[in-house]
């Protein structure tokens, strides 16, 4: 997983979320739930860290921009 750039959290309301899940289906499902509520830059794929359990992905949220239900 790439490093988090200062730009990703440069202002209040911007956040980086790291999702750690058991499998390649769960992590994107969690990301999609976040994307239904806030403006989200989503990850294309999950990664595995050697020696760590599960899969990971980062997504970038702008919680200032809540999406309409």
Helix and strand layout, with pairings?
Layout: E1 14-21, H1 26-35, E2 38-41, E3 55-66
Antiparallel strand pairs: 1-3, 2-3
Overview of the molecule:
The chain is of the alpha+beta class and 69 residues long. It is 14% helix and 35% strand. The protein has 1 helix and 3 strands; from the N terminus they run βαββ. It has one helix at residues 26-35, and strands at residues 14-21, 38-41, 55-66. A 3-stranded antiparallel beta sheet has the order 1-3-2. The longest helix is centred in the middle third of the chain and has 10 residues, at 26-35. The model has no long low-confidence stretch (mean pLDDT 89).
Distinctive features:
three-stranded antiparallel β-sheet, 69 residues, alpha+beta, 1 helix, flat
The strand line-up of the biggest sheet is 1-3-2
Q: SS-based structural class? A: alpha+beta
DSSP E strands, number: 3
- What count of helical segments does DSSP give? 1
What kind of sheet is the major sheet?
A: 3 strands, antiparallel
Average of per-residue pLDDT values = 89
């Amino acid at each position: 997983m790439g490093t988090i750039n200062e730009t990703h959290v440069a202002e209040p309301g911007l956040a980086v979320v790291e999702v750690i899940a058991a499998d390649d289906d769960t992590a994107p499902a969690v990301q999609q739930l976040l994307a239904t509520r806030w403006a989200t830059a989503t990850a294309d794929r999950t990664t595995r860290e050697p020696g760590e359990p599960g899969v990971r992905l980062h997504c970038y949220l702008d919680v200032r921009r809540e999406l309409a239900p």
